[in-house]
UniProtKB/TrEMBL annotation:
The lineage of its organism: Eukaryota, Viridiplantae, Streptophyta, Embryophyta, Tracheophyta. CIPK serine-threonine protein kinases interact with CBL proteins. Binding of a CBL protein to the regulatory NAF domain of CIPK protein lead to the activation of the kinase in a calcium-dependent manner. This is Protein kinase domain-containing protein. ATP binds at residue 54. The chain crosses the membrane at residues 206-225. Coiled coil: none annotated. GO terms for biological process: signal transduction. Belongs to the protein kinase superfamily. CAMK Ser/Thr protein kinase family. SNF1 subfamily. It comes from Gossypium lobatum. The keyword Lipoprotein does not apply. Residues 25-250 form the Protein kinase domain. Keywords: ATP-binding, Kinase, Membrane, Nucleotide-binding, Serine/threonine-protein kinase, Transferase, Transmembrane, Transmembrane helix. The keyword Ribonucleoprotein does not apply. GO terms for molecular function: ATP binding; protein serine/threonine kinase activity.
Length: 250
């Protein structure tokens, strides 16, 4: 995988901002961070358009043995261009950093909306339809998200859903000879029982399970499987122990 490479990562800007990346993007506020990356709001200095830039530290990636992982994530993001998936515009690199220039989605996480209470059925239906449209598009192209949850679903200015964070995603060529995936991954409350069984799983079905949990959360305002003890929660998931609230329509 080739990156656009230049000798310096960032020029300091005398205006007091974070800096000017490659003479093209002005970094703004920090939106979030993880072990290997930080995400900033930024501006294209020519067009003035807002973007989100994911800044990855090459040294940390090398030490963590994640080069192949990052290349796969880039390949996946370039493969899944869809109205309900956050778009990757370009990838740039320097000697020390890798930059993912991505669509900036202003409305925040769907999680923030549902944390205030359950949604109306018509609103939940709209979000679920958009989620399924995006997930089906990915599956048709041999891409499996494997970490679908409201925190990874963003809302744009029009209130439309955008799937984000393909960091745990996999592609068809990673399937084992038994036709299954075997990597244990995902977020505990949204993980499918076959993942917990550790005997291999169909990633299409795992994504659909997570979509079902998301729909429940949108309609109920709480998780179907929940327990402070994570092993107790896993038992509930594995056994399918949950109840639908009385306000669910039939």
């Amino acid at each position: 995988m080739a990156f656009t490479s230049v000798p310096t990562a960032m020029k300091k800007d005398s205006s007091g901002g974070q800096g000017l990346i490659l003479g093209r993007y002005e970094l703004g506020k920090l939106l979030g961070h993880g072990a290997f990356a930080k995400v900033y709001q930024a501006y294209n200095v020519k067009s003035g358009d807002s973007v989100a830039i994911k800044v990855l530290d090459k040294e940390k990636i090398l030490k963590g043995g994640l080069i192949a992982h990052i290349k796969r994530e880039i390949s996946i993001l370039r493969r899944v261009r869809h109205p309900n998936i956050v778009q990757l515009f370009e990838v740039m690199a320097t000697k020390t950093k890798i930059y993912f220039v991505m669509e900036y989605v202003r409305g925040g996480e769907l999680f923030n909306k549902v944390s205030k209470g359950r949604l109306k059925e018509s609103v939940a239906r709209k979000y679920f339809q958009q989620l399924i449209s995006a997930v089906n598009f990915c599956h048709a192209r041999g891409v499996y998200h494997r970490d679908l949850k409201p925190e990874n679903l963003l809302l744009d200015d029009n209130g439309d859903l955008k799937v984000s964070d393909f960091g745990l995603s996999a592609v068809s060529d990673q399937i084992r000879q038994d036709g299954l995936f075997h990597t244990f991954c995902g977020t505990p409350a949204y993980v499918a029982p076959e993942v917990l069984g550790r005997k291999g799983y169909d990633a299409v079905k795992v994504d659909i399970w997570s979509c079902g949990v998301i729909l429940f959360v949108l309609m109920a305002g709480y998780l179907p499987f929940n327990d402070q003890n994570i092993m107790a929660m896993y038992k509930k998931i594995y056994r399918g122990e949950f109840r639908c609230p009385r306000w669910f329509s039939s």
